[in-house]
């Protein structure tokens, strides 16, 4: 367990958006630091009530001013398009010692939103993204073990004091996560390729099948390969609309590369070029094996239901 002087001082933590990610953070923190008072704020009254009933939070608040009073840390875990409106509501009540962080899957847009909303208080905001999740959402999907041995990417701002960055890093370490550091641009390009594009493809494939003749018959015979490929199409549409729009430039680049690759596959099929297909499939199989080995030595293996 990581214990720093900064973390020993954490007494009150506010979570804005108590769904899968905020709820799992709260459960993990509670498990390792029972003394921390956890306050939840929500757009959905039903989710707020549910988070209280499930013991995810100690207090359900509907008043941002009193929620922020004496808060050491505020964690925003709502869809990324909500960042500016939430930070604007926080701004007038933000005490000088309070640090604010987020969990958004995109980082350049979050920084732009934060700068607009927080102005002179921007140094108090430390952007972050836990690289762990699953396709279920809402407080009922939250689990304390979600972040165990998983990465937490921090895209620190030049205005952040080292103590603010350390507070965010050590709090997530308490939840089991391993801090990593990237620039917002590095972050958004990497995740466009390995997270945002796969989600887009999964949604597009399932949607496309619903529009085909005999869609029901096709779904009836779909097996585990289809289930694996499309698991992430079960994720929150609002969240993925926001991510896709927020990172659309990098995502469009990745889509262009992918379209070129599909064209390569289509050409090989048209020409019955088995050697070309074998080269693509063999390279992909070897690269995936190397990736699985690397991940398994650093983290718990990816498993059904998300990682
Ligand atoms: N689902 C995943 O696997 C991962 C998601 N993320 C990011 O974490 C954030 C939260 O995602 P999830 O927890 O999965 O979604 P979720 O849908 O489970 O929870 C989000 C919660 O935010 C609430 N909310 C929305 N707008 C709000 C507002 N203006 N004020 C207060 N509450 C508001 C919703 O009512 C909902 O309960 C998103 O930004 C997402 O990009 C990051 C890593 C993984
Ligand atoms: O469901 C899955 O496997 C995911 O890919 C989870 C996930 C979703 C969004 C993120 O920003 C990070 C992780």
From TrEMBL:
Write out the coiled-coil annotation as residue ranges.
none
Gene3D superfamilies the record matches: 6-phosphogluconate dehydrogenase C-terminal like domain, NAD(P)-binding Rossmann-like Domain
A GO molecular function held by the record: prephenate dehydrogenase (NAD+) activity
Q: Name one Pfam family in it.
A: PDH_N
Q: Which residues form the Prephenate/arogenate dehydrogenase domain?
A: 11-299
InterPro entries in UniProt? 6-PGluconate_DH-like_C_sf, NAD(P)-bd_dom_sf, PDH_C, PDH_N, Preph/Arog_dehydrog, Prephen_DH
Name the UniProt key words of this record, in alphabetical order: Amino-acid biosynthesis, Aromatic amino acid biosynthesis, Membrane, NAD, Oxidoreductase, Transmembrane, Transmembrane helix, Tyrosine biosynthesis
A GO biological-process term: tyrosine biosynthetic process
Pathway listed for it is:
Amino-acid biosynthesis; L-tyrosine biosynthesis; (4-hydroxyphenyl)pyruvate from prephenate (NAD(+) route): step 1/1
Record field: transmembrane:
12-29
The EC designation for this entry is: 1.3.1.12
Is the NAD keyword given for this protein?
yes
The keyword Aminoacyl-tRNA synthetase belongs to this UniProt entry's keyword annotation: no
Q: For this protein, what reaction is catalysed?
A: prephenate + NAD(+) = 3-(4-hydroxyphenyl)pyruvate + CO2 + NADH
SUPFAM superfamilies, per this entry? 6-phosphogluconate dehydrogenase C-terminal domain-like (SSF48179), NAD(P)-binding Rossmann-fold domains (SSF51735)
Family that this chain belongs to: Belongs to the prephenate/arogenate dehydrogenase family.
Protein name, per record: prephenate dehydrogenase
Lineage of producing organism: Bacteria, Pseudomonadati, Pseudomonadota, Betaproteobacteria, Burkholderiales
């Amino acid at each position: 367990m990581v214990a720093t002087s900064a973390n020993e001082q954490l007494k009150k933590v506010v979570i804005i958006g108590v769904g899968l990610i905020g709820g799992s953070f709260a459960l993990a923190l509670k498990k390792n630091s029972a003394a921390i008072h956890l306050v939840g704020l929500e757009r959905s009254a039903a989710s707020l009530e549910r988070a209280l009933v499930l013991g995810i939070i100690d207090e359900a608040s509907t008043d941002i001013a009193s929620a922020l009073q004496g808060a050491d840390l505020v964690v925003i875990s709502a869809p990324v398009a909500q960042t500016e409106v939430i930070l604007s509501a926080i701004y007038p009540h933000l005490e000088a010692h309070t640090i604010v962080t987020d969990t958004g899957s995109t980082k350049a847009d979050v920084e732009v939103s934060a700068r607009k909303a927080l102005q002179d208080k921007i140094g108090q905001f430390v952007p972050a993204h836990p690289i762990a999740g699953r396709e279920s959402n809402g407080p009922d999907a939250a689990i304390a073990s979600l972040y165990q041995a998983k990465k937490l990417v921090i895209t620190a701002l030049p205005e952040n004091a080292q103590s603010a960055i350390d507070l965010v890093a050590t709090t997530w370490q308490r939840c089991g996560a391993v801090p990593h550091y990237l620039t917002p641009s590095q972050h958004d390009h990497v995740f466009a390729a390995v997270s945002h594009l796969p989600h887009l493809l999964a949604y597009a494939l399932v949607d496309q099948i619903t529009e085909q003749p005999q869609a029901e018959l096709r779904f009836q015979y779909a097996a585990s390969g289809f289930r694996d490929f499309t698991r992430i199409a079960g994720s929150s549409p609002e969240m993925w609309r926001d991510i896709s729009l927020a990172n659309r430039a990098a995502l469009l680049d990745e889509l262009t590369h992918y379209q070129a690759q599909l064209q390569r596959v289509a050409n090989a099929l048209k020409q019955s070029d088995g050697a070309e297909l074998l080269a693509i499939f063999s390279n992909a199989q070897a690269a995936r094996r190397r990736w699985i080995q690397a991940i398994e030595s650093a983290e718990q293996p990816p498993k059904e239901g998300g990682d």
